[in-house]
Amino acid sequence: MTATTLGADWALDWMERARAVVSANRIELIELDRAIGDGDHGENMDRGFTAVAAKLAGVTPSAPGEVLKTVATTLMSTVGGAAGPLYGTAFLRGSKAADGALDAGGVAAVLEAALEGIQARGKAEAGEKTMVDAWLPAAQAARSAAEEGSGPVEALRAAADAAAAGAEATEPMVARKGRASYLGDRSAGHRDPGAQSSALLLAAAAEAAEAL
């Protein structure tokens, strides 16, 4: 039976799956970042989500927002580079938008708030070869699913699939923000590491929902 709302158990499973998928893809994220950045994205993300898993071990939160707030503060204090503030702000904004257990509209609201946080912190727009290119289509897909009457599991799957497509679409783009922008046209032909890690995290969220 498909879950009609997503509670704290889903959020905890999401973070455990996030830790695992980031660890499994650490080298890929390092190599993506080495091509157009400073090469530390995979290491930073792995350290951050390992710390998140340790922080959440043994806790019994009552709602997803509590989990997301813990994720935010942990990432801000453990992830270096640009990713820490960006992801930390995303999860913090998302935690504030999470009002109790999440239906599809709640999922969309969390993703929209996370996107707003990323854009407020990074000053990036769609098409500039950043994690916005994964989060924007994800938030839009979740909102569309909610408006069409889908449940939260379907909304997250739509978001995850859109994020994956968005990350892939960064490959031909020329970077306009961050360290990658220093390369100019040479940044084309490489997938943005932040968009890729975003897609991995949203896939983990959908898989946690589908496992309920």
Automatic annotation (TrEMBL):
Keywords, sorted A to Z: Kinase, Transferase
Residue ranges occupied by any DhaL domain in the UniProt entry: 9-207
Tagged with keyword Nucleotidyltransferase: no
Any one GO MF annotation of this record: kinase activity
Pfam families with a match to the protein in the record: Dak2 (PF02734)
InterPro entries in UniProt: DhaK_L_YcgS (IPR012737), DhaL_dom (IPR004007), DhaL_dom_sf (IPR036117), Dihydroxyacetone_Kinase (IPR050861)
PROSITE patterns referenced in this protein's UniProt entry, alphabetically: DHAL (PS51480)
Name of the protein in question: Dihydroxyacetone kinase subunit DhaL
